[in-house]
Design a protein that fits this description.
- Helices cover 54% and strands 16% of the residues.
- The strands form three sheets. The protein has a four-stranded mixed sheet. Strands 6-5-9-10 form a four-stranded antiparallel sheet, with no helix packed on it.
- β3 and β4 form a beta hairpin.
- It is elongated.
- It starts with a helix and ends with a strand.
Amino acid sequence: MKPIKKLKLNQCWGQILILLSAIVLTSCSSGGINDRNELRNFYLTGSYDAGLQYIEKSKYYQDKNERLLKLMEEGMLFHAKGDFEKSSLLLNDARTLSAELFTTSVSKKLEKTLFNDNFDIFYGEIYERSMINFYLSLNAILQYQKSGNRADLFKARAEVLGWDSFLNSIKEDRLGKSIYKNDLLLKIYGAKIHEMVGTREDKQIALQLYKDALDVILKNYNTYPSFNLHFQDFKKDFEKLSSLNLNEMKKKYVAETDHQKAIQDFLAQNISRLTKNSKKVGKEDKTQVTLILEKGMISQKIAEKSFYGLEFLSKDPILSLYAAQILGLLPSPNSFNPGGAFLGIAVANTTLKSVGVGFELPKIVNNQPIQKYKLTVLDKDNKVVLSKDIPLINPMGEIAEEAVFESSAWTYGRVGFRLAAKHATAIAASFATYKALGGGRNGENNFLAKNAALIQYIGAAKLIEESEKADTRFWSTLPNEIRLVDIELNPGIYHLEMSSELNEKLSLGDITVIAQENPQLVNVRKN
């Protein structure tokens, strides 16, 4: 064999090794998906200690870039265990770190144009950072009910105020956009905390928060399908809604669901109660009990294939012809398309002959239908004391879906630009190899050059694909929905059950109601 042929063959084998290395890299990367699935399984089965041990042993959760996520997950596990003090320590660290990261994330936006999000620090979505405040307050109020220390009660109220300040701090950049910037849970849960503190001033604040909640539903929660049958039109035309009068806007863009009607009735009852009598909550011989129900596990964040056009090819006829005939990136219906088929490359616009290269974007698969649930309270003799609907407050899966869609929309252009630059380099390098090996001429050299160039590009493209994996990190132990209901009960021991409109029945356990003037809070998580 002639030396030139040996050289060409060695170059071919070198490109094949690049391809094999790319495939190995692709198969070894999981982006923490397996770790999150394991952790969710521990949470679902109530194996909270095992979950904490798993986090400590997991290389993924010990990575410095995952520090915020680690603190969030650990805080939730300790909360589920009932160790509210330890949970609060971890979540307070998470909140501090989140604030620090947020101040640096803006300056890193340009840097992130060049590097994949998976290799960056986990910053958390806005709704995830918001929920840290909720669980800090919830921990404090549950600790108060264990200890009787009013300092914990005041801490719960302080956390509500801090939560409100956090949301106010992010509103300015999000005004006029149909995205998460207000939280119905803050208004309603916050009102309950102020009622538990019980001063005249706190009750007046609670009354105002209930009124504010109605405004949040109208302006912010009509973007969610659980609350509005016309949610898509509401989101699409959100910017023009402020120019319409209220009746016109409601008539055209709002079709209230049963969930929205239920929470409006709930708010109307609380507003009426506090308006008529701010001195005494509930009847003389009964205690008002507020049940906060967390249902299900939040929907998973996955990678979804998207495409970005390589417009630069249309400006270079030689490269465009090379990409079409040698690499097979511009397939016609009857052509053989080795490169395009292998990489999942599609024609973005057949009339313009624009190539669309595939890459991943994060997406929430929110396929958990939100049902109507009814609470049934039974006494010690197993007799039904009362039955009442449990209103939906926060559809967390829908909130997460909207937040991830928002961030993906911004990510699309940034990643697409980066992707196009990488493919431009890969195609140019492949073309150089093709010409160097005698491509374009008849005979053996042309065959060898074509295959060497194709293998080189496929290998490079697989490496590019690996470098652009979607960032699917998320706070995986959050609930999928949060509900809240008020009931009035005589002191004693009761058993709680919930049933769905599909006749699903779930036990919520036993509660002990204490004789007291201010409301008693009960928190149940049912997965």
